[in-house]
Design goal:
The protein is mostly helical and 255 residues long. α5 packs antiparallel against α6. It is globular, with a radius of gyration of 18 Å.
């Protein structure tokens, strides 16, 4: 794969996207950033219709419009991020959380039947949520600070654990179910953590707008998770394969 320029270009885009996510997490509330990351499914769907000839039905186009509208509402209503100085106890708790997610994921991976895929997707989503929270509370980005910051280790561990569980979910079950589980769990819990523990707020008087935008963006993203599988079209399957391998939320952490 390293001999293919498209793969190398996708890796470069992944790295740029992850750097942009880190910057966004230091400037915007978690609920806004996580919903915007989930919205990349809309980009995948539109690009698939253009580049690989995938056919989008009216439901997919409606979901794309919902994602755009939801992100627009979030962008207009999100206030500045809350305080990120949480202390080492909070950051160490993130490492413990990653360990717990790892144990849960290993137990879920042994389950037979259809429950395995959504639960593995949920475990991966939890890990990506911890990754986002860890990135949010980083002290800084210089190597000297990262080496001493427990949040940096939580971020790296969460990325590895989540990637493994997400890959397992995609390998052993429905792509639609796995992606929907990841989208839901990687957006809602981190948003709650940001509001309850990190001081995230909306602009004055725009809380209802932010709630509506968040709900619309996440709901539409979940609807787009079924893109390409409704009629089992080859082009749609190719688009989904491309999404699961290189155009994901937290792309650098996912490989």
């Amino acid at each position: 794969m390293f001999s293919q320029w498209r793969f190398l270009a996708s890796l470069g885009l992944d790295v740029l996207g992850f750097i942009a996510q880190l910057v966004a997490l230091h400037r915007l509330p978690l609920f806004a950033v996580q919903a915007m990351i989930a919205a990349n499914l809309a980009v995948t769907a539109v690009c698939a219709s253009w580049m690989v000839g995938a056919v989008l039905g009216w439901r997919e186009w409606l979901a794309v419009g919902g994602v755009i509208a939801g992100v627009g509402l979030l962008g207009s209503s999100a206030g500045p991020q809350g305080a990120a100085d949480v202390g080492n106890t909070f950051k160490l708790a993130l490492i413990v959380a990653v360990a717990g997610i790892g144990m849960i994921g290993l137990a879920v991976a042994r389950l037979p039947g259809p429950a395995r895929t959504p639960l593995l997707g949920a475990a991966a989503g939890l890990g990506y949520g911890v990754l986002a929270v860890a990135a949010r509370v980083l002290t800084g980005f210089s190597p000297a600070l990262l080496v001493r910051d427990p949040a940096a280790y939580a971020l790296a561990a969460a990325g590895i654990v989540s990637f493994l569980f997400y890959a397992s979910a995609l390998e052993g079950g429905s792509v639609t179910v796995a992606v929907a589980a990841v989208v839901l769990v990687e957006t809602i819990p981190p948003a709650a953590v940001g509001i309850l523990l990190l001081g995230d707020k909306t602009r004055h008087g725009l809380a209802a707008v932010a709630i509506a935008g968040f709900a619309l963006a996440v709901f539409s993203a979940v609807q787009l998770a079924r893109f390409g599988q409704t009629e089992h079209r080859p082009d749609g399957d190719a688009a989904l394969s491309a999404r699961s391998s290189g155009s994901d939320p937290h792309p650098a952490a996912r490989g």
